[in-house]
Amino acid sequence: MRSKLFVPGSRPELFSKALAGPADAISIDLEDAVTEDRKAEARGTVRDWLRAGNASQGKLVIVRVNAMDTPHFEADLAAVVQPGLHVLNLPKPQGAGDVRAACDALRNAERANGVAQPVRLLLNIETPRALRDAAAIAGADPRVMGLQVGLGDLFEPLGISRRENAAVHQVLMAVRLAAGEAGVDAYDGAFADVRDAEGFLAEARLARRLGYAGKSCIHPSQVALANDAFRPTDEEIAHAVRVTRAAEDAERDRVGAFLVDGRMIDRPFLLRARAIVATARRLGLLSGA
Fold this sequence. Notes:
Elements: E1 3-8, H1 15-19, E2 25-29, H2 39-51, E3 60-64, H3 73-80, E4 87-90, H4 96-113, E5 120-125, H5 128-132, H6 134-138, E6 144-149, H7 151-155, H8 165-182, E7 185-188, H9 197-209, E8 214-217, H10 223-229, H11 234-252, E9 258-260, E10 263-265, H12 267-282
Parallel strand pairs: 1-2, 1-8, 2-3, 3-4, 4-5, 5-6, 6-7, 7-8
Antiparallel strand pairs: 9-10
Helix pairs in contact: 2-3, 3-4, 11-12
């Protein structure tokens, strides 16, 4: 999931348009993008849209619900946990206990609504406590498919500048390592300045260098930037192919470590090369290697 495009849950006219666009996932938002007086309307709209079978099977469908400490959480789950929903995006979990409680509520909603395919969880890390306990949060339940950084919610109340690169780097690294400990992906959050394409791209490229899988987009103009930033480069693909081919020879010759392009290759580097090849194939950038 290189790109995830947010769409307000109160704007159903945008759902199909987002599904038809180039983003890897559509993320319908019931939280920040919907005013308090329209929460019930928005969740009903999303429920009806999902029940009508409008969700595309070719694109990941995510719904961000309201946080567990709000009066909307249970009603959100009862409405939107429907066939066609792939991932529930949970904002502001504070610890592993919150994740387990959310999973219990999710299972109840699945049973009530006849959902046979388990809905996965994307968890936002956007409070100091959640950042401290990110590894426990990520590993709290097998439903968790990834952690997502929420720098706006994390930084703004603390007076930390979003343009402070050292702070951004520190948080991104901490969340990536926490996700890695749990064996799940990490995703970069939204970049609020839609006019600053260079800033978005710089942050996305930093996230990719730190091992992130993708980034949130709040405007369609950001989708192509995210898709480009999280695409393996031609050079990376070519090197990865050479590594996987050399590994076949090394295995035949019972060699544990070998050189490719002057670099020593052993198991960690081979695993990375195989991941790049798999991503390239999935994106249609490579065939037959």
